[in-house]
Amino acid sequence: MIARAGTGPLRRLVVLRHAKSAWPEGVEDHERPLAPRGLRDAPAAGRALAEADCLPDLALCSTARRARRTWELASAEWGTPPPVRYDERLYAADVPDLLEVVREAPPEVETLLVVGHNPGLEELVLELARDGLDDTLDRVRTKFPTSAIAVLSWHGTGWPALGTGTALLTSLTVPRGSKQ
């Protein structure tokens, strides 16, 4: 049995790695588009979040083109997408930078989505999770592929209280869209 840690309402941090990107010659990393597979997988990620009843109250998204497009395609699968904040600090962010942005979320947000990049997102999940259901932590340690969705749950009165080992990794999903 996993013990409850922290006090306050149940909160969820949903971590979504951008979908598969292309590597066109002469295009800056920040401006790389999604690859055909990414264009299929991003909507699948949106559907997976809806099916899991894990829609966010607020989304924080990297300013990189591939992250923005992942957000657009995923959120288009929902009736009414939540507000989104594009934050340049999420591009090529490490764990301290990611935590800084997450901790700025308003206290009324109970489910927060972060759309960004590896290796930072994978490291964030491993930093925050004190434990995981089933084999989720081992799977993250092995690989956090494009379009991966990690859901971390924790109890807290506000996002500034989220820290090392305060969350439980409740799910890890890697949605894939089908070829037409």
What does this structure look like?
The protein has 180 residues and is an alpha/beta fold. It is built from five helices and seven strands. It has helices at 36-51, 65-75, 95-102, 120-128, 136-142, and strands at 10-17, 58-61, 84-86, 111-116, 129-132, 149-155, 167-173. A seven-stranded mixed β-sheet has the order 3-2-4-1-6-7-5. α2 (65-75) links the parallel β2 (58-61) and β3. α1 crosses α2 (65-75). The model has no long low-confidence stretch (mean pLDDT 94).
Q: Tell me the major beta sheet.
A: 7 strands, mixed
Task: Name the shape in a single word.
Answer: globular
Structural class: alpha/beta
What is the strand tally? Answer: 7
Q: What is the distance, rounded to the nearest whole angstrom, between the alpha carbons of the first and last residues?
A: 43 Å
Give a short summary of the structure.
The protein is 28% helix and 22% strand. With 180 residues, the protein is an alpha/beta fold.
